[in-house]
Amino acid sequence: MRKILLFITLVLLLASTWMALTKGRIEGPSANPCSPVRNIIYAHVPSSICSLACFTVLLVTAIGYLATGNESWDHVAAATAEVGLIFATVLNATGMIFSRAEWGPWWTASPRLISSAILWFLYVVYLILRSSLPGSKQRRARVCAVFAIIAFLDVPMVYISARYMQDIHQPSFTFDNPWQRGAFFMGMVSTMLLAAMLIWIKTDVLKIKSRLEAE
Amino acid sequence: MNDMVINVKSVSKAFDTRNVLRDIAIDIDTGQAVLICGINGAGKTTLLRIIAGLLQPDIGSVKLCGYNIQKDPEKAKSQFGMISHKSMVYPELTVLENLSFFATLYGVKDSETHITELLQDVGLSSYKYDTASILSRGLLQRLAIARALVHRPALLLADEPFTGLDAKACHHLITVLKEFTKNDGTIVMTTHDIDIGLQCCNRVVVLDKSNLIFDAKTGDIDKERFLKDYISYARSET
Amino acid sequence: MRYFWLSLKAIFIKDIVTELRAKQVLPTMIVLGMLIVWVLRMASEAVLQSEAVIGPVALWIAFLFAGLLAQERSFATEQRQDCIYALLLAPVDEGTIYLAKLFVNVVLLCIFEIIIVPVVIVAFRLNINNWPALIGVLLLGNIAISSVGTLFSAIVQLSRARGALLSILVLVILMPMMIPATFALLLVFGAIPPEMTGTGALAFVGTFGSAVGFMIAFDAVFVVACWLLFGFAIKE
Fold first, then answer.
1. CB spacing of B93 vs C14 below 8 angstroms
2. Can you list the positions of beta strands (E) in B166-217?
3. Which chain B residues are within 8 Å of A214, Cβ to Cβ?
4. Chain A, nearest residue to C222 by Cα
5. Chain C positions in Cβ-Cβ contact with residue A66 (cut-off 8 Å)
6. Cα(C101)–Cα(C107) distance, rounded to whole angstroms?
7. Contact between C179 and A164 using a beta-carbon 8 Å cutoff
8. Residue ranges of the domains in chain C?
9. Are A151 and A68 in contact (CB under 8 A)?
10. How many angstroms separate the CA of residue B14 from the nearest CA in chain A?
11. Is A214's CB within 8 Å of B15's CB?
12. Using one digit for the tens of pLDDT, what is the confidence trace for B166-221?
């Protein structure tokens, strides 16, 4: 079951990449018309959606753990935070490459750039907190759930407060042809699937690890 | 009138993956002074902390004077006082300030007269206005007892209360504890010093590797023999 | 209800008295704040006409770090002699402990502010047009810093690198608050001309009112959330 899903995910990823690089190539107006950098949105936008979705999953696991005390919630939380960090890193890295090519600076204070950076920091701090708490596993899981909830409340705050900065980010993007739209849609679906698969696998790894420690 | 003070029902607790308590059940009646003994890591302190509500059991329930410590914590908490080898008082505050602070938290009505009485009982009257930091270990333990009894509990939990006390202070503590049981108070105590513990307790419980293996009234057993057996058992285990 | 106020007051007074007798953090906080202000004052010499801009920044940085010292102390004092157990054993609601500790941290930061704000005003030659606005913004920032700090102080109490862990937890959550807070102070100190507000002056967009509104919302959300979650954080 998992192998099949993983296979489908990879096929979709490859297909969307192929479409993005051939028929779906974006050649629109840009500071440097020959530069292929605009195609980065095929990786950038899905990662941003995934990193936010992971945060929502993290919130659900946190509430689940605090309500039930079941250790499985904590495994999912740990896996989700790690996967979320991967996508947040991709989000910021692709964003910075785009910024450098299109606008000049690697980074500038603009609402979405600030929000993405803080999102990345929230994941990193969450993982540091996980690894540096002494005491029993139950306490660690409880404390991390508390931090995850506070961090989740911080996300809308970040999005609102970042609006006090001037925006240079492109608010939306229009596609010219169905190939582009198809590539984008497939990229979105396959990235979401990939995130889900990664969380699933990592959760199992953590479960096996904790069972091995028990013996 | 229910004279069962503590009712521990099939309590199990694991830290991470290590079982610390396995299916412990114990009932304690009014006026009993129970000594919980066992070697290091047998789960004595964990059991006491679960009774006090500081830790949650994985399975099972604890009732104090009929109140469930998890479900009805505020009522259950006012039923008991606790002392340990740490004093649990603030070193910067004076003896009087410490006691009136805790009296307020427990909602004691006539705190002033009650605190004066308490200080007389434990022999700290002359140190009333001294900060806790200048008290010696023995005097600090007297203050800790006064703190634990500030809300007139029916039950006293004591976690290694004799650690770090000299012979005189130990003797004083034993007298206070005996006085407490004489007035229908109930005590649950853990200690390494089983010899001293036996002097003020009338029931002994032995925990071994997270199981309850021995439970008897001191009146029913030969104290000398029990002491001898226990010491040889403890040596063989460590 | 009466019991709630009595126990809140008792814990609050106990903490203030303990701090005044032991003088654990207040002097350190003030000296740290002054040093931060002084270092940034030196740095601002390098840039022309930057005093009014760096002043508010200096104030917030001094605030954040002094606040961290106060918060770390919050539960460190309870750790000695296991006093934290005595508090947990008493029939007090955990939320009450949180609120009392929050008030203590807010008051400690207020005392700190009373000393540091004049220092910043003198060092950076700032003009205040509107004292109530300044006090309001500082108080809102103060509550925001203390609200998450008090909760996280309970979280990190058993860790070895307590201070370091506390600082990253608090700073990452407070990051969004810092944008409108800095913006509001820039307006109060007149670093941005009033006619330019709302137009995107200095890369900031918005009005003073909306920035203060954001801070009020931030305080409300996090005080309530931390108050509700505190019980989970403090238990062993």
1. yes
2. 186-190, 203-208, 211-217
3. 17
4. A150
5. 232
6. 10
7. yes
8. 2-234
9. no
10. 10
11. no
12. 889 899 999 999 999 888 899 999 988 888 888 888 899 988 888 888 888 888 88
Beta-sheet pairing, B4-15 with B18-29:
antiparallel
The span from the CA of A165 to the CA of A113, in Å, is 10
Nearest CA among A141, A147, A51, A82 for reference residue C170: A147
Q: In this structure, are residues B34 and B205 in contact, taking their beta carbons and an 8 Å threshold?
A: yes
All structural domains of chain A with their residue ranges: 2-28+37-214
Cα distance between residue A84 and residue A107, in whole Å? 21
Phi-psi region of A25 (alpha: psi -120 to 50; beta: other; left: phi over 0): beta
CB pairs under 8 A between A and C: 96
Q: In whole angstroms, what is the distance from residue C105 CA to residue C96 CA?
A: 14
A122 CB contacts (<8 Å, ≥6 apart)? A55, A151, A154, A155, C172
Alpha-carbon distance of C65 to C68, in angstroms, equals: 5
Q: Is B66 inside any structural domain?
A: no
Sign of the dihedral defined by the CA atoms of residues A193, A194, A198, A199, in that order: negative
Please measure the distance between the N-terminal and C-terminal CA atoms of chain A and give it in whole angstroms. 29
**Is B84 part of a structural domain of the chain?**
no
**ipTM for this model:** 0.90
Token pair listed for A21: 């690089």
Residues 6+ apart with CB under 8 A from A85: A120, A123, A124, A127
Helix (H, G, I), strand (E, B) or coil at B131: strand
pLDDT tens, position by position, B82-138: 999 888 999 999 999 999 999 999 999 888 999 999 999 888 999 999 999 999 988
User: Residue by residue, what is the 3-state secondary structure of A13-78?
Assistant: HHHHHHHHHCCCCCCCCCCCCCCHHHHHHHHHHHHHHHHHHHHHHHHHHHHHHHHHCCHHHHHHHH
Q: In chain C, what is the greatest distance between 2 CA atoms, to the nearest angstrom? A: 59
Q: Is A136 near chain B, with CB under 8 Å? A: yes
Give the structural domain span for B145: 90-151
